[in-house]
Design a protein that fits this description.
By secondary structure, the chain is of the alpha+beta class. About 40% of the residues lie in helices and about 15% in strands. Strands 2-1-5-4-3 form a five-stranded antiparallel β-sheet. Strands 6-7 form a two-stranded antiparallel sheet.
Length: about 220
């Protein structure tokens, strides 16, 4: 069996990739082999006779030139992602490795893997992260706004744990109302500092809130 020609070599390499470009010593595309006949990279047939560097976006040209130099000098290049120009206006990201053919005429094969699915996943991850960041800053804004309203409110406000009925927070107006600093109010079981009839009303109010999420206002009296 004789040595493989350029097209056969490209076909073998493409079996584990999406595309292989056979390049001459000047980096001009002389043949193309695709891993799938219906692959979206099929439009690459139009690249025949063009320089590989001329089929990519401006920011990718330097990467192509580096791969050509490395493959010519060392036999194989490092893997790099480049973006191909597309007639549809959407760039095609492909990760390439350039390999020098063993014919001694300077020809190379650039073997590539289509990265559009990977890039789409990365984009979704970026968008998800950005969404989480927006939600985080929105929550921070709401928390700051709540804190300002809580502290500046002229009405006494107690934040009470639904399960234990212990005071979790007390604003300055509540400190003034009960005549105690917040650190002494926090941790106490509510209701307190009110007569028995008011305690029964408050307890009923708390049960209604736990069951339905809201309750109508009810008057109570402080003191025993």
């Amino acid at each position: 069996v004789g040595p493989l020609d350029d097209q056969a070599t490209a076909s073998v390499l493409t079996a584990a990739s999406d595309i292989a470009l056979v390049l001459d010593e000047a980096g001009v595309i002389r043949d193309i082999s695709l891993g799938q006949t219906d692959h979206p990279l099929d439009e690459s047939r139009e690249w025949l006779g063009q320089g590989w560097v001329d089929t990519v976006t401006p920011e990718s040209r330097g990467k192509v030139e580096e791969m050509l130099k490395e493959a010519a000098a060392e036999g194989v290049s490092r893997r790099r992602q480049v973006n191909h120009l597309s007639p549809s206006g959407i760039d095609i990201p492909v990760a390439y490795t350039a390999v020098r053919l063993g014919r001694g005429d300077g020809r190379l094969v650039a073997v590539g893997r289509d990265l559009r699915d990977v890039c789409a996943l990365q984009q979704r991850l970026v968008e998800a992260q950005q969404s989480l960041q927006r939600d985080y800053w929105r929550m921070r804004y709401l928390e700051t706004r709540y804190r300002l309203l809580f502290q500046s409110s002229t009405e006494a406000v107690l934040m009470v744990d639904a399960a234990t009925q212990k005071v979790a927070e007390a604003n300055p107006a509540a400190e003034e109302l009960f005549g105690q600093p917040a650190k002494k109010l926090v941790g106490r079981v509510f209701p307190f500092e009110c007569d028995r009839r008011s305690e029964a009303v408050i307890t009923e109010q708390l049960e209604t809130v736990r069951a339905h999420g809201q309750v109508e206002p009810a008057p109570v009296r402080l003191g025993t």
